[in-house]
Design brief:
By secondary structure, the chain is an alpha+beta fold. It is 36% helix and 20% strand. Strand 8 and strand 9 form a beta hairpin.
């Protein structure tokens, strides 16, 4: 059985009937390092099996773990991993995520999912998407400062001009043929004008679909990679507010994935730094009026009451313990225990649940030394 791999979501599964299984594992993209990944995976699954067997009948244990057993034997899957793997499993749910960042290795069975590592990745401020566009087809990539990967387009997104327009190409010509560079040419007179009309129709369809099914759900900045003339046309018709002004004026098929990542990050980095600068400046300006804070206890109380508008948390920083979601009270804990929460992640989850914005910030850009910085609504 081939198991589907999910794109990283913005809304993570939280409330589900137990048991809730959470498995995280760092993985490797290349041989020979990736040879150890299936072995480590089976060890993690074994720990889940032992934990489940203490509480549930064997039939239910088998049902819950069957997707893990199937995945362990899929050589194709393990030959195409990224930096990390996350699997969330409940009786009515299965989510498998390939991750562009490594995660700590652990597996646990609990009454709720352990979503903190995913939360950290989702809220990192350096994520972006690249739309590779030509007359004939589109590709979508997602990345960060360290990695870039092509992602699967939503089923509603039409990938080629032929998919988008079908037989409704501009008269009077018929017979579409594609050249090696992805450009599409047609038969009879007035070809250039007619090709331009169809290209514009295709680009409009692409713009609407990418906005609805990728940009709005992810909220990520979108960079265009296309020939210069396609930049001009696409930007003239685009209604995607996530499309940034700078882009790559080259056929994306002419670049390797590494070249595309390097060029893309050189453009995205100034936007990323500007976002952090804006947040840090806003935090400092709100301080004199008491509308910003770096005290963990104070931020927790404010988060419970919905006062936190924006929260910066320090990347790779962990504060063992948990927050009472009803009172904001902090309880210390031992971070080495797999079911112990991290206070910063609990803060982030509280703020998100109340409609606030959370941004994970590198250590050297944090405006505070506590691991958190909050900007209040009132």
């Amino acid at each position: 059985m081939t198991l589907p791999t999910n794109e990283l979501p913005i809304e993570l599964p939280v409330a589900h009937d137990g048991p809730c299984l959470s498995l995280y594992q760092p993985t490797h993209r290349t041989h020979p390092d990736n040879q150890q990944d299936p072995i480590r995976f089976r060890n993690l699954v074994k720990s889940l099996e032992q934990s489940l067997s203490q509480q549930y009948p064997q039939e239910e244990v088998r049902f819950l773990l069957e997707p893990y057993y199937d995945l362990a034997d899929q050589k194709e899957f393990w030959n195409h991993t990224q930096e990390g793997l996350a699997i969330l499993r409940a009786p009515d749910l299965l989510r498998i995520y390939k991750l562009q960042r490594p995660v700590p290795e652990f597996a646990t069975v609990a009454d709720s999912f352990h979503i903190k590592p995913l939360l950290r990745i989702i809220q990192s401020a350096d994520r972006y998407q690249v739309l590779g566009l030509s007359r004939g087809e589109i590709k979508l990539f997602e990345g960060n400062r360290d990695a870039l990967d092509e992602i699967e387009l939503a089923p509603e997104v039409l990938r080629t001009l032929t998919d988008a327009l079908g037989e409704q190409t501009t008269e009077p010509y018929q017979g579409i043929r594609a050249s090696g560079d992805g450009a599409v040419y047609h038969g009879q007179g007035g070809r250039k004008d007619e090709v331009d009309v169809d290209t514009e129709r295709f680009f409009r369809a692409v713009d609407r679909a990418i906005l609805e099914y990728h940009s709005r759900p992810s909220g990520l900045p979108l960079m265009l990679a296309a020939l210069p003339e396609h930049h001009t046309l696409f930007r003239s018709i685009s209604e995607n507010k996530y499309l940034i002004d700078d882009g790559l004026k080259i056929n994306p098929n002419a670049l390797s994935l590494d070249e595309l990542r390097n060029r893309a990050w050189s453009i995205v980095e100034p936007h990323y730094q500007a976002l952090l600068n804006q947040l840090i400046e806003e935090f400092g300006q709100a301080k004199p009026s008491g509308l910003s804070d770096d005290g963990i206890s104070q931020i927790a109380s404010a988060a419970v009451s919905g006062r936190v508008d924006k929260l910066m948390v320090e990347a790779d920083r962990e504060i063992p313990g948990q927050i009472d979601a009803s009172t904001g009270h902090l309880e210390p804990g031992d971070i080495s225990h797999p079911q112990t929460s991290d206070v910063l992640d609990d803060l982030a989850e509280l703020v998100m649940n109340k409609g606030g914005q959370v941004v994970v910030v590198p250590h050297d850009r944090m405006p505070t030394g506590t691991g958190a910085a909050a900007i209040y609504r009132y």
